[in-house]
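Researcher: Re-running this chain for the archive, since the previous output was lost when a drive failed. Same request as before.
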Amino acid sequence: MSCLSVMGFFWASCGSDSDSSTGATGVNPGIEPESSSDALGTVSSDSEQTSSSSSEEQVPESSSGPDLAQSSSSDGVNSSSAEQLKLARDPSITCTKSFSFEEQCPGSTEPYYSCMDLQEFLKKDTTVSEKILNKWEEKLFSCGAVQEPVTVYGVVSRVCPHYQVTYLKCSDGKTYKPYADEDGIAYITKEEYYETHSSSSVAESSSSSVPEDLVTNCPQDSFALFVDILADVQKGLYEEIVKELDKNDTLPEAKRAFLDSIINREEKTLRGNLYPYQRGQYYGLEYVSLKYDSECWFNGYIAKTKTCADGTPEMTELYREKYEDIFWECLNLIEKQLDEITE
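Model: Regenerated structure tokens:
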């Protein structure tokens, strides 16, 4: 039997033997994940720190907030933008944008929400604009929970990314670091921004020409890293490999030996907590990056479950989508290894 037919059997067995509620790749909605981050160590404390209120403060011209209009490009600061903005807190004050580049290492002051902040937002039963809800999920997906080291001359060093930071020079003579701006309005604090986009603010607003698309957030929970989803994928792959080994008597011995070598029958999963991307057993997975191993890689979190009005936890669409992507990618890698085995 060819390698392709071996894998084909996997999919046939998925369709016939699996519970129809679990989908083609064996995802079981409503089951709490056994988080590998819980078993192998929690996410780095650096990534869990709550963001400071730096974005809420005025930036003194003589200290952390440089006189941007006079700064040169050699200082990493761009020239001021001609765009005029009004402050949400006082529309009589007009501002112009200026830009700077700041280095941010894990543990340094964060200008935006941390991973833990975003999880807390998504855990709440609240009504917000759909745009805000999507933004929370997108930011959590790439919030940088997993540190990604690089090797320089044999020494592993953290990468401290540089971010373009916006400053506002305003007609009141002060310089601010804004949280966000939309439609010509600048919001200095996160509270200003989200209060403006809350259900009550939108309902009371009569000046907006485009009404907000409000949605009720179903509280989300069981936030998973990439390796947590991979752990669920490995269990699904284990079930299919075992079915193949038990039912297919014509499977060549070399291929049978290979498939048997990559499963752990005692734990009912694959051998190696990063397989098939990497072999071996790894610990402290919050420090392990698979950025260059997987096209599905992400360095933040995805909520696995959400609970809506009926009170029944169900799998989130984003988790199911990512599970499917990782499942197929892993299966393709295993199939390639099978193809390399000669009869």
